[in-house]
Description:
Elements: H1 2-17, H2 22-37, H3 41-51, H4 60-76, H5 80-93, H6 98-115, H7 120-140, H8 144-156, H9 160-164, H10 166-173
Helix pairs in contact: 2-3, 3-4, 4-5, 5-6, 6-7, 7-8, 7-10
Amino acid sequence: xxxxxxxxxxxxxxxxxxxxxxxxxxxxxxxxxxxxxxxxxxxxxxxxxxxxxxxxxxxxxxxxxxxxxxxxxxxxxxxxxxxxxxxxxxxxxxxxxxxxxxxxxxxxxxxxxxxxxxxxxxxxxxxxxxxxxxxxxxxxxxxxxxxxxxxxxxxxxxxxxxxxxxxxxxxxxxxxxxxxxxxx
Length: 184
């Protein structure tokens, strides 16, 4: 009986101890990218969610690329909270990657718009969360719609100084822009 109990405990421990190796994670990452390129969104999302707990086993470049890509899939699949989590990881690692900054800015702007009717401190906090991301995106890849949104938000929260100094900030932010992630 003791041997049977020991064998069952050992089998149980071994089955849970099996962690994915870096090679297995990278292989899934390649499958994830292939599914995305073939526009197999559901398959890519499933693979992405399988990779997420082990994404730290990818190289830094592949990890950043993965987080951006899965974040983009989440965003396009109306899963804003998950998209934000992924984009935040990219921005923390590569702050000058303005594509992720734009994604974050627009998602935070969406949250701010949802709070607009309530106004007050929560709305202002949400706007202030969106603005730095929108400004980085605008500095690196000027867009009339983004600029109008930035200006609208400054006016909505009555931040005249922010609006007045916007051009100087955009010039400063333009100095370091990354438009492609290296997955090496």
